[in-house]
Every structure is written in C-alpha cells, then in structure tokens.
Backbone:
C-alpha cells in the first residue's frame, strides 16, 4: 500500500459545482497534513493545513479523519481558476521535520 | 521579501554528466529540502539539510548528494546522469524551530532534461 494515495482524476466539474477529494495515508502516527495546489508546470503552493478539528478558508474546507486515515478537501462554488492539481501532503513527524510524503495529486478541471 | 529561489530554471545535460542545482531559502528559514517530480507524479523527497548536515534522506541513490552553506542556501548534485533523472527538481524551505510540522515553501523548480 502506498504511503499516500489520491485519485488522480481528472475531475471535470462545471462552474459553481461542489467537488470533494479524498486522500488516504498508511502511517497512523502521521503528525501533520496539508493540501497543496500545483498549476501546470509550476511549483506547488500551500493551499491549507489540515487540523484535527477541520478548517475552512472561504470556499475551501479541509477535514481529517484519523480513525479511517484520510483527509479531504471540499471546494464549493467552483471557479475556473480552481483548475489545477491538488496534492495531499502527509508529514509523519512533528518538530519541524519535512520528510513529507506527497500524493500523486488529483487533477481538477472546472468547465465553463 | 524574496521567496525561495532556484537556479537555473532549465537545464539540458547529456547522460553520464554531472549537474549542480542551487537553492536559496526564504528569508528566515533554516531548513532546505529537495524533491524530484517526474511528469504526472507527485514530488518525491530526496533529502533535507539543516545546520549544514543531511538530516533525512529518501530512497535515492548515492549519485544524489547535497550541501548546505552557512547562509542556509543549498546545492543538489547529481552524478552520472541517467535519462530517468529528467524531472522537475524542487527546493523547499522551512523553519525547523516550529513545534509542529511546518508547511514548506517551494521554489519554482529547475527543469532538468537528460539526453
């Protein structure tokens, strides 16, 4: 089983739709979790951290389910500019260690 | 405030050659991690440098080596290049003193093509 698994997509959704991605991880001791966004041929950029209590940032909501070992990202009212690849990132360590593991990414295409 | 900067942005090398990639971390950051991203894949962790030493390493052969300088900048060296080393090489910086696993800020990457 891969350390971090994501559905590669692509997810093709119309503007205004709600879309959700899941990401499963295998290391139950993982400490921190993030969603990154990567535009085509660009570097990944942090979208949001994922907290145990869940967190929301505008149209984006991230959730963590430790029991089932997955994190999720919900995007409401999709915009054309949301089209990108969304990378799930899992950090098995605390204390600032960065041997993070990336998923392969889920590609989102928002259609007019 | 400059973010993470990498050089060069693009590079073409011949199989068997050696290459050096450079990274300057975000101001105030002390830790540099290097990643390899093949087309259509997520970034793969190569290694991390902190206090001028390699602190962690991923599953990459010894042909991949690195260095961190006193000003926290870093180099990634790859010897005996193979065609399969063609990828986007990303440098990420972070601050180790934070208690929780911190988010990493990425440079724009160096696109290496081995022919």
Residues:
């Amino acid at each position: 089983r891969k350390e971090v698994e994501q559905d590669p997509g692509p997810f093709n959704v119309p503007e205004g739709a709600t879309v959700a991605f899941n990401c499963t991880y295998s290391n139950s001791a993982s400490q921190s979790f993030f969603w990154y966004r990567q535009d085509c041929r660009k570097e990944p950029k942090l979208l949001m951290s994922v907290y145990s209590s869940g967190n929301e940032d505008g149209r984006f909501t991230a959730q963590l389910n430790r029991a089932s070992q997955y994190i999720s990202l919900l995007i409401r009212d999709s915009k054309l500019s949301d089209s990108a690849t969304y990378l799930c990132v899992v950090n098995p360590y605390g204390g600032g260690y960065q041997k993070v593991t990336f998923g392969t990414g889920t590609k989102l295409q928002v259609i007019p | 405030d400059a973010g993470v900067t990498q050089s060069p942005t693009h590079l073409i090398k011949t199989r068997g050659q050696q290459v050096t990639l450079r990274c300057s971390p975000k101001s105030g950051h002390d830790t540099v991690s290097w990643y390899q991203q093949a087309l259509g894949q997520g970034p793969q962790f190569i290694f991390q440098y902190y206090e001028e030493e390699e602190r962690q390493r991923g599953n990459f052969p010894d042909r991949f080596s690195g260095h961190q300088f006193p000003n926290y900048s870093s180099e990634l060296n790859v010897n005996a290049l193979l065609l399969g080393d063609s990828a986007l090489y990303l440098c990420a910086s972070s601050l180790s003193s934070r208690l929780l696993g911190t988010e990493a800020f990425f440079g724009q990457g160096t696109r290496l093509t081995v022919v």
